[in-house]
Amino acid sequence: xxxxxxxxxxxxINSWTILKLPxxxxxxxxxxxxxxxxxxxxGVAFKTLIEPDGRYSPDHKPSHxxxxxxxxxxxxxAKAGDNVQVSLVPSKEWIEPEVPADLKKALSTSPKAxxxxxxxxxMARWDWIRWIRAVKTPKTRxxxxxxxxxxxxxxxxxxxxxxxxxxxxxxxxxxxxLREP
Length: 181
Hints:
InterPro entries: AF2212/PG0164-like_sf, DUF1905. This is DUF1905 domain-containing protein. It holds the Pfam family OmdA. The structure is a single chain. A hairpin with a 2-residue loop joins strand 4 and strand 5 (44-52). The protein has helices at residues 23-28, 70-75, 101-108, 111-119, 122-133, 138-153; strands spanning 4-9, 11-13, 16-20, 35-41, 44-52, 64-66, 83-91, 173-174, 177-178. The longest helix has 16 residues, at 138-153. By secondary structure, the protein is an alpha+beta fold.
């Protein structure tokens, strides 16, 4: 797939700086769900997971977004409110997700689940982490971790019944849809 070039304005949702792809750029991507991409912001290289914004209605075409980290923003001399030049290319090489501390601790108590965790693909680990984090309360999150361990112990490599086309980050979404700035 060839490079996708566009300009977009960085914005804030809560304390996070968000880069949302224009609908026209997102439409070129091979999936409406999460994807790995390599690219540049203002000429500064990065690799990241882009997430779907969860919008599916006649009034809104779906798009993707990600949260550039502080180093990338600093190196690109960019902040919320700035227009940035972006180039993206989808990648088949999945970077490893950062495993949340509570999940890491739970996996360490279950050798069978932990063994399968290391055997599944990075993409499957992203699915599990997104499924676990996509809840509003700590109690529900803990329940998802317990269910994940049970499923991994039973040899299940992915969470079931999880729509990968929705926005699974509760800090910046409402009802599975990325909030507006």
